Amino acid sequence: MNQAKISLRPIAEADLPAFSRLVNDPEETGEFQWFGWRDPERFRRRWAEHGLLGDDQWIFAVVADGEFCGFVAARRKGALPTAQYWNIGIQLMPRVRGRGIGTEAQRLLVDYLFAHTPVVRVEADTEVDNIAEQRALEKAGFTREGVRRAVTFRAGQWRDGVLYSVLRTDPRS
After folding, report:
1. pTM
2. Quick check: 107 and 141 in contact, CB under 8 A?
3. Residue 104, Cα to own-chain centre: how many angstroms?
4. Which domains can be identified in the chain, with CATH numbers?
5. Beta carbons within 10 angstroms of residue 19's beta carbon
6. How far apart are CA 114 and CA 109, in angstroms?
């Protein structure tokens, strides 16, 4: 199988219908990302305000061979201005999952954050049962730090999460 050319770019207006399905449709979000119904226009309003590139959260389109496939997001974290870091996440359309696109997109996002912000740490987390995302994070250079108990409430129950990080000083492939 030929590997698709993966890139990131700001979310375009033409991406918004597919983006909306990825955050509002239980069939599109997938098992680990559906947290119930919320305001379906919240992201469109944020896009109109600042293109989904606000002060504390950046959302980029994941593009494979020129086609919108989903998005990656980075949220600024940290209680002190001198100890900030990013927490990242990803959401891909069901038809492109399992092809390595998520691994490469997360690697590209980490590279972007280290190139354009002074933070030393980027972290990601996922549910303990989301083995595919754990593999993707490890392939993207993240180190598993441990399990955090009862950090996510989804589908009527509290779920454990696995925390991963990559540091600016870590060797990168």
Report:
1. 0.93
2. yes
3. 12
4. 6-167 (3.40.630.30)
5. 23
6. 9
